[in-house]
Specification:
The complex is a heterodimer of chains A (421) and B (89).
Chain A: E1 13-20, H1 26-36, E2 46-49, E3 56-59, E4 71-75, H2 79-91, E5 102-108, E6 118-125, H3 131-146, H4 169-184, E7 204-212, H5 227-245, E8 252-259, E9 274-281, H6 289-305, H7 308-318, H8 323-330, E10 343-349, E11 356-357, E12 360-369, E13 377-384, E14 387-395, H9 401-415, E15 418-419
Parallel strand pairs in A: 4-5, 10-13
Antiparallel strand pairs in A: 1-6, 1-12, 2-3, 5-6, 7-14, 7-15, 8-9, 11-12, 13-14
Helix pairs in contact in A: 1-3, 4-7, 5-6, 5-9
Chain B: H1 11-25, H2 46-60, H3 71-74, H4 77-88
Helix pairs in contact in B: 1-4
The chains are: A alpha+beta (421), B mainly alpha (89).
Chain lengths: 421, 89
Amino acid sequence: MQALWKREGISNNTLMVVHCDGPLDHARIGRALDRFLDFCPWPSARLRRRLPWGPLHWAAGARAALAAPPVRHKRLSSPGALHAELEAELNAAIDPRREPPLRFAILDGAAEAAGLQSALVVTWFHPLMDPRGGQNLLAHLAHLDESDGRAPWGGAPSVFVTGPDPRPLKERGRLGRSSQRYMRTLVPEAPVSPGTGLTSPGRVRFEQASFVGDDHGLGGVRSTREICWRLALVGSTMADLWRRRGLPDLPFLVPVSIDLRPKGEPGATFGNVLAFHFARFKPSETADVDRLTRALRQQMTDALRDGQIDANAVAMEFLKYRPLALMLRDLPGTATRETFSFNCADLADFPPALEKLFGRRVTNAYHAPSVLPRPGVGVFFNRCGIKNNLVVSWIEGAMETQEVARIIEAIREGMGWRAAH
Amino acid sequence: MSTGNLSRLDPEEVARAVTDFINTTIMARTRPVRPDDDLELAGLDSMALLKVLLFIEAHYGFWMPDEDLVTDNIRTARAFAAYICRRSA
């Protein structure tokens, strides 16, 4: 983890919040989790080193020694109480060396006026799995719940982790080194971020808003579903923040995650199944979002054409469980403890297959990941049915709530969305 | 593929080539697409779209410019094929 915060116990938690139309039965979830452990131990694993200087790895004992992750149940009185509870979950850092890397909470009675009866909250240590992995885990648990007493997955258990890269170690090492060399050339100077200057990490906060409105698909100039367009729009809101704060016009450096799973089926649940592209653009280049979109698309095309995305994927796998720490070592500005300018990701659609969960209908679902003190802010998109969710996570001290509200409103306006009721 | 015979491209053959590329490099083996399947509904994202564009560049010798990335040209493998054949005529 980022060296500056090594002993600060900062949260690497990420949340998946699933709203359902009625109270959830925590015993059903507990049973499904317990049954899942018959097939896959990783929800109860611990992060270990074989030797003090060795790489970290997930370790799990025999089935008899595995205890299911906790499922907490709480009745809440108001929507405000729900949000406070979610932020507390985000900040109660999971230590995967000493406890299970994920936990569940059922928060009942929240937002009853709006018709919401229950929220299922899955909190996990971020490196355990990515958001799609979290959704896959939930789908597996729902499947086990529905197939109670019968052989699940048609008798052929699903694949929970990706297989090893079949390429020889020498080739993977070469690709990993080429990725590291490339990263050193990304930007001429260390990026600045809203978290620049933070010397101690503050609490993680987040704001979530749901909107409706048509997205334009992957084609066309204003292809609002395209990650480059969304990044350009978020970049323009960040440029506004930069102007208000008088931050320098240095290039933004933004990691763009790329899901490596084959399309059309859920794919792996646990482990890293992402590669990263690194987008670079100046705040002063954000005025024309369509033009910036084209430039970002060209950058991504060049990275793909040059094999840099494949090399990054290999480096991430090759460096096994230390990708962030080692990535930071190679990024410009590591000496000043800067990472990226901000985070931005589109976590795509909540699987339609999860329309029903443990006997309840899902009314909305979104992810709220914690962000590192630097950059100190992240913007995350996802969709659930007709709802477009927008989550801004930030670190107290790096951002003000009015600044977050301004970002959300600017993105809503840029996307042409209206508030969902 | 040589770019010398582009004017004689067969739309069916091109649709098959685009479909094969998508199925071998983007889709899960158990979820192949057919030439008329909606690619976005099948799960193709921004990065997958770029991979298809690079395939077209490598095999048919031209880059699809941004202004041509409209739904009518990229919705299905067959739509890509029709565009490639028009461009090559």
